[in-house]
Structure formats: C-alpha cells, structure tokens
Write a sequence for this structure.
C-alpha cells in the first residue's frame, strides 16, 4: 500500500503565504553564470531587502486574516560560537493532521524553483519527528518529482551517512539536511563542531557546523515551541540562517505569524476528523477520594490544588479544593466520614507530594479512592464497542478503510510480564463485546491476534518505561523505527492487527491516519496531554489504495478518557489558552460529548418509495466538464479587469535614502536600532542594459502555483499580455515578480468567470453514477452540542416529525438557515412529497473545487407536474455577497444540473426566508 498525495487548497495557501512574502525582497547574487543555480554553493550572496520584506509582511498578514504586522520580528542572539546573529523569523500555524511536514517541504521546493535557493535545514527536537520527516520524504518522493519535474533534490540526516557532506558540497541539486537540535546544541561534544582530521583538498579545514553556517541555509523549524530556551535559540542562530520558517500547531513564541490554520478552522473545513469524547468517571471504592493536581508556592508558602468529594444534598460531589499545612479533609469535605484523620502535615518538593499526619504520602498526579482496574475495564470495553460499530458503519459504505484503535499504556509492566493484566482483560472484554454486537460467539477471532504493542526497549530487547527525555532517546528510537516501518502494513485488511498498545512516552510518534479511537490507561493524571490525545488520531483516514476519505460520517475520532466530559473540555480549553489562544472559543474545536450521541436513521419506506427512486434517477449522475472558450475573448476581458489597478501601487526601482540619529553606548559604539531608521526614495535606478526576466514565464508560474492551478497555452498568455494597457505593461520593469502576481490574479479570475459562460457538463455512463447506498447510509452517528437557555448552537440535529416527508428521521444541519429551511419543507406537505439534506458524500466537480449542494426535493405542483429541485441555502440570495470561490461553485453547479440526462433538475440558491424559489416559467 502507498499513500497518495494530491494538491489541497489549504496547503497551497500556506505555501503561497511564504513564497509571496519573499517576492521581490529576496535578491539573488548578480554574478551567477548562465545555467548555474544561484544557491548551489550556498546563500551567502543572497540579500534580503528588509524594508520591502516588511511591506510584504503587511500585505500578506492582511490577506491571510491574521493580525496585521508592519515590523519584522528578528531573532537577535549570540550563537554558540560567539558570533552575533540576526535573521527574520516567520511563523506558520497548521493544526495537527493537516499536512505540516508536506507543506514545509513543498514550500522549500517552490522557493528553490522561484529564487534558486538550494540549502535547507529541517530542525526537529525529537527522534519521533525526525523519523516522521524522513518517512514523509520517502512517501512523497514520486509526488514531488512529478510536481517539480525540473528540480532535483536529495535529503539526508545529520550524523548519518553522507548527509552532512552532501549538504555542504556545491551542487545545483536542492539539499535538505534533517537535524535534531540535540545534535547541534553542545559545541563541546557534538561531532558536527569537530574539524576534519584531514584538510579538504581545495579549502582549509573547517568543522561541519562551519560548513552549514557558511551556506546560510533556510531553516525550517518543526515544533519550535520545544526550542525556546536560550541554549536552543543560540543553537538555531549558530546555523546562520538566511531566514527561519517556524511550523507548528501550538506556537508558544510567535514571531511574525503569516498564516494560520487553527484547530477550529481545520475541523469546520473537514480537514481533520471530528472529535467526540466519552468520559469514564471513577466511582467510589469506599476509601476517601483524593487527586493531587498541583503544588504551588504562594508568598513562600506551599499549597496543594486537589480534587476531593464534598457533602451535598444530593450526595457526595467531586470538587476542587486548596489545602494548606494543617488542613483537615474531614472539614474540607463538609463532614464526610471517609476523611476522618486525614490532616495535612507538610508538603515536600522533588517529587512534589503531600504528607499527612498518619504518614500517608500522595504525589502530584496520583489519586486514591478509585478502583483503577474497573476504570480501565470501562475504557477498554467502550473502545472495543466503538471500534466494532465504526468498522460496521464504514463497511456499509463500501469503502475499504481499516479501523484502528490505540491505547496508551503508562507502565510496560501493565502489558508485558508475569503480572501484566491488560492482555487478559482485553481478550475477555473483546469476546463479550463481539457477542454484544450481535455476532455469533463461534465467529469471534482470537483476540490475541488482534493486538500489537510498541514499547521502548534496550538493544537486547528488554522493554522499559521512559518519559520522553533526551536520555531515553536511544530506547524510544527502536519503538519509533517499528512504528514507522509498520505504518502502511497495519492499514491492510490482510493484517489482523487493529488494536495497538503503545507506551505513553511515545505519543509524538503516533499519527496513523486510521486511528479512530484513543484511550489512555493511566496511573497518574496530567494537565498537559489532552491536545496530545486528540493529535494522535486527527488525520483523515485512507482506504487500502492510499486515498484520503473526506466523508464526515466516517471521519470521527472518539477519545475514551478517565475523567468527565466537562473536566476534559475545560482542561482542553486551558491548554489552548496556554498555547496562545484567546479562550473566546474561536481557537479550538468544541469536542463532542460521545454520551450525547444521536443516531440519524434512513427511513426505509422513504428510501424504497417511487418518489425517491425518481428523484435519485434525476440527480445521481456524475459529469465531467469541458470548456469551449475561444481564447480570443480573454485578452480584451483581462485588459478591462479592475484587478489590474493594483499595478499602480508598485514601487519604482530607486535608491533608498536612510536617515537616523547616532546613539552611543558607554564604550563609544553606535547602538542605533534598525527599527528607528527612516527610509525614503532617492534617484530612480538606471537599469538600461540589464536583462528583464521573462514576464510570460513569470505569469505562467503564478497561474500554476495557486490553490486552483490554471494552465493556458503559451500563445494565449502572450496574447493576453500583449493586449494589456500600456500603463500596465510598462510597470513590469519596476517589480517583475509582484507585477506577474497581479496580472496572473486578473487572468485567473477573468478566465474562470468566462468559463462559467462557456462550460458544458457531459454526464458519465450510468455505471459511474453515485450509489444511493453509499451516499445515504442507513444510520449515521452524530454528537451535537446541547442547546441551553442562553445558547443556541449553530449546528446540530433537528428531529423530523413522524409521518413527515424527510428521507431521514432527523436533519443534520450546519446553520440556523438550514434548520429553518428544513422546517419550511416539513410544513409544506401539500407540495413537498419528499426531501433530504444531501450529505457531503454527494459532490459536483467544478474548476474551483468540489461542491456539495444542500437539499434535494420532490415537489408536486398541485397535481399538474412533478418537479425535482436541488437547493443551496445561504443567508442571502445575492451571490455577490458571498466569497468569490463559493459564488463561483454555485454558478458552475447550475450548469452541472442543466445537463441532467434523465429530465430537468431545477437548481438555484435561496434562503429560509425566500423559500424554494420555484421558477414556474422554466417548467412550462
């Protein structure tokens, strides 16, 4: 099995944010010979115009809907060898599971293609991420060789093979060096700082680090929040970056943020799985309950934040409390007998713990008063139950997607060894859940064949507990090698292994896309791991052919946790705030409560009715589009585009006048900061005799390097550029790259708008049509938010009345407009004989991406004729009020439905206020 990679719009947007940022500001050396790669020997001759870079930053940040920034945030630091360094840093935020590694490799290759850059260092902080980066290079090789056919590239790992030598050698090949920060942050012991014993033949001897620094690489930092210490900042500076690009889902130290795809946006766009949580709250064991969350110092006095049971009218209620020296838990609990005699004697550090007067000692993260094995039993049982149900649901769609479940185990001894209880417990519960699912006991597979485990180990194969520290890297590396090596193998249905037990210290190495359930079997609790739990299963699943599956009914991740849903939600929000979120609810996705599950079922009598059969016969076809556009119409149409007006704001090539006062320190050195230097334009630069870059090639590159690539023939592009007004053409000399981007945007927009007028859809053979059983699955589980007096969620499930005309027993809506429109349809039974909310599984192809309409309706016109309607519902009927891409998809969809092969399909956009908007004249 091989993963398949496709260009995705959200990834193209992240790439463009960086490449557009450097446009015009990054300047190649002027002494490059013809046919030679500008950065083949390194980037020492490249310069960055910081003024233009700051201007680009303002433009990009405004376009990308992040906080607008006008000033560069430089990392200024002395490096580990005593050199002063200063270089720009740009942050790119991408939610886990959206292809961050793919994006920064593709960005580097695009920069190489545009600007001749050839040296890139990928800096990581752990063995797991390093292994994942190398795996991504292997998986994407064929894809990138096709995407960048004229660009050769290699990758190597610092400290392995010839990786360092290949990187430092002059070459026209793009060179990637994957390095762990631990391999460069200790000058006294890291081998990269040692000079070669034999001097180089054509140069004086230098260390590997000197070779890297002299190349002035572009440094791609993976998870920079783990490199924020002073030591690691100096280690980054020692690489002497031309520029540093920082990629993470959780930036702690944001420099210039130029692109953001946060968790909420990724979830709402369907780029990751939807998350639901099943909370297992431990019941009382008869012993006093106590969880020690944290010990903190207040005015030099130690206190403990804990959770205890407290007496209430309805019985004991679990609640937070703060303990000091002498605190009596009997009093704190409002008189619960179980706490008699539990008086705090003192607090101690390293390890943090509470010691009671009777000698009882409880450490931070530990709890007493619960039957841990019973909690694990519930977690495993519900994970197995969800696993079997998810596999059945996917099988019903006809997809070949294998479901995996992942358990994180805190202690190896719980799974391996004579006293291990988990294997026996799992096998017993699996057999019970197999029968509970309505299957014959005799058909149950041997549970032992379904389990596989990955634990850190010594060279001799002895498993051991680790904590993810640097000293554990050797042991954990062996587990990661096995995880990475088996990543594709475990996804095939021929391999029975589908329940994975992994050590909790290995969380970063787990990102298998087909993990649908995650459970943590813990002895202790941590306040900083909920995002880790979510991250292990967020990626969209793949089928046995390696293709991504986007169906929302399939793409759901269930976390089975050992705390209440409310505690998980509150803890998760705290983590988002700690990672720089606002806490307003706009940062992270709201996880679903798995205990609030609603099953939306297809009504068999409606599905088998003649009304549905006729409706489906009209709309089930797939179609390919063809554009019969006379290229001769494009030059005049582009020439009059208002989008070309932006060329008027291109800055002319000119000298830069800089003015500033000199400020001195006590040693007489000038310390005036670059940020206070005023700049103005001087004399225009004389460029007579210099060769202008080919504007046709520049525009062609821009047309292909976007979310929706547009390929026009070269004669068509030449004709369009020739027809541009002189005021536009003459400005190419001022800033060729930016000019090409403006012109390409005008061409793309104009061409696609012209395509709507000239596009034709050709229905495919009936055998290629959508399958009703796949589109309208028999039962779909949904976890909608609960409505409250002061909260009406924008999405959810609206039950359908008995005897109504809905194909399903409820409507899954994504907006209040959709909910109101469903009610309108239900209330018009005189005319509406059947309707359904169309799942996203039903799609129409358009030049600006796939499109899923909202509704399909069978409408009876007072017994005179039967109409088949497809409707899109928005809060406006004016397409100009919508985003351009959204409006264009609706326009293309109209042309698709005009080509219905069986009979007319009436398609239009509407609102809940405007109703079905039936054009009776069109049906005469």
């Amino acid at each position: 099995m091989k993963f398949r990679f496709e260009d995705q719009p959200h990834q193209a947007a992240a790439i463009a944010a960086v490449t557009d940022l450097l446009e015009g500001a990054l300047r190649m050396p002027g002494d490059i010979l013809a046919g030679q790669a500008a950065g083949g020997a390194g980037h020492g001759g490249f310069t960055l115009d910081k003024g233009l870079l700051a201007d680009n930053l303002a433009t990009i940040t405004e376009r990308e809907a992040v906080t607008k920034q006008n000033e560069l945030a430089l990392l200024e630091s002395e490096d580990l060898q005593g050199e002063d360094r200063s270089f720009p840093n740009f942050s790119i935020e991408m939610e886990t599971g959206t292809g961050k590694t793919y994006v920064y490799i593709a960005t580097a290759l695009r920069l190489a293609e545009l600007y001749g850059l050839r040296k890139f260092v990928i800096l990581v902080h752990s063995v797991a991420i390093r292994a994942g980066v190398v795996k991504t290079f292997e998986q994407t090789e064929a894809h990138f060789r096709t995407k960048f056919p004229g660009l050769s590239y290699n990758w190597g790992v610092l400290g392995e093979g010839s990786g360092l030598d290949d990187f430092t050698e002059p070459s026209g090949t793009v060179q990637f060096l994957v390095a762990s920060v631990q391999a460069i942050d200790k000058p006294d012991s890291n081998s990269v700082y040692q000079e070669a014993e034999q001097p180089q033949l054509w140069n004086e001897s230098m260390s590997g680090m000197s070779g890297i620094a002299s190349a002035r690489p572009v440094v791609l930092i993976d998870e920079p929040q783990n490199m924020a210490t002073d030591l690691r900042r100096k280690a980054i500076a020692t690489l002497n970056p031309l520029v540093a690009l920082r990629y993470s889902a959780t930036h702690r130290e944001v420099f210039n943020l130029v692109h953001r795809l946060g968790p909420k946006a990724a979830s709402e766009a369907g780029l990751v799985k939807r998350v639901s949580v099943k909370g297992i709250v431990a019941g009382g064991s008869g012993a006093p309950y106590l969880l020690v969350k944290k010990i903190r110092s207040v005015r030099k006095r130690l206190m403990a934040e804990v959770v205890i049971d407290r007496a209430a009218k309805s019985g004991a209620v679990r609640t937070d409390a703060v303990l000091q020296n002498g605190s009596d838990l009997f009093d704190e609990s409002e008189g619960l007998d179980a706490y008699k005699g539990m008086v705090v004697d003192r607090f101690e550090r390293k390890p943090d713990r509470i010691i009671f007067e009777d000698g009882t000692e409880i450490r931070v993260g530990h709890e007493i008063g619960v039957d841990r094995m019973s909690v694990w039993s519930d977690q495993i049982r519900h994970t197995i139950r969800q696993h079997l149900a998810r596999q059945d649901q996917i099988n019903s769609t006809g997809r070949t997607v294998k479901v995996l479940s992942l358990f994180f185990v805190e202690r190896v001894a719980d799974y391996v060894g004579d006293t291990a209880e988990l294997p026996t417990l799992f096998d017993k519960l699996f057999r019970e859940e197999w029968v509970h699912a309505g299957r014959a006991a005799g058909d149950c597979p041997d549970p032992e064949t379904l389990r596989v485990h990955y634990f850190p180990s010594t060279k001799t194969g002895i498993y051991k507990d680790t904590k993810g520290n640097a000293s554990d890297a050797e042991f954990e590396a062996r587990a990661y090698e096995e995880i990475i090596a088996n990543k594709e193998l475990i996804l095939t249905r021929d391999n029975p292994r589908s329940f994975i037990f992994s050590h909790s210290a290995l969380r970063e190495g787990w990102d298998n896309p087909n993990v649908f359930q995650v459970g943590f079997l813990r002895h202790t609790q941590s306040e900083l791991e909920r995002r880790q739990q979510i991250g292990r299963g967020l990626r969209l699943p793949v089928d046995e052919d390696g293709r991504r599956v986007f169906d929302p009914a399939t793409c759901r991740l269930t976390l089975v946790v050992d705390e209440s849903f409310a505690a998980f939600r509150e803890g998760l929000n705290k983590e988002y705030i700690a990672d720089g979120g606002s806490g307003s609810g706009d940062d992270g996705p709201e996880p679903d409560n798995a205990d609030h599950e609603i099953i939306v079922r297809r009504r068999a009598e409606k599905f088998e009715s003649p009304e549905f059969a006729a409706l489906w016969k009209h709309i089930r076809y797939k179609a390919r589009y063809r554009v019969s556009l006379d290229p001769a119409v494009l030059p005049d149409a582009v020439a009059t585009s208002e989008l070309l007006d932006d060329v008027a704001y291109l800055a002319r090539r000119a000298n830069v006048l800089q003015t500033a006062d000199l400020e001195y320190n006590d040693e007489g050195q000038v310390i005036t900061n670059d940020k206070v230097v005023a700049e103005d334009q001087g004399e225009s630069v004389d460029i007579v005799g210099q060769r202008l870059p080919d504007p046709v090639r520049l525009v062609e590159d821009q047309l292909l390097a976007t979310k929706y690539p547009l390929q026009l023939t070269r004669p068509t592009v030449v004709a369009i550029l020739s027809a541009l007004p002189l005021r536009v053409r003459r400005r190419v000399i001022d800033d060729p790259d930016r000019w090409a981007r403006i012109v390409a945007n005008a061409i793309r927009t104009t061409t696609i708008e012209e395509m709507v007028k000239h596009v034709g859809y050709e229905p495919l053979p009936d055998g290629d049509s959508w399958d009703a059983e796949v589109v309208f699955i028999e039962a779909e589980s949904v976890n909608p938010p609960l409505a409250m007096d002061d909260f009406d969620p924008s999405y959810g499930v609206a039950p359908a009345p008995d005897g109504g005309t809905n194909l399903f027993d409820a409507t899954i809506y994504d907006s209040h407009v959709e909910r109101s429109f469903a009610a309108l349809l239900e209330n018009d039974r005189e005319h509406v004989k059947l309707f359904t909310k169309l799942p996203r599984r039903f799609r129409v192809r358009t030049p600006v991406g796939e499109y899923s309409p909202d509704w399909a309706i069978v409408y009876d016109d007072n017994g005179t004729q039967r109409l088949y309607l497809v409707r899109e519902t928005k809060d406006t009927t004016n397409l100009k009020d919508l985003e351009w891409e959204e409006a264009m998809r609706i326009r293309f969809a109209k042309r698709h439905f005009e080509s219905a092969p069986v009979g007319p399909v009436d398609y239009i956009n509407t609102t809940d206020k405007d109703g079905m908007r039936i054009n009776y004249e069109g049906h005469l």
Notes: The two ends are 54 Å apart (CA to CA).
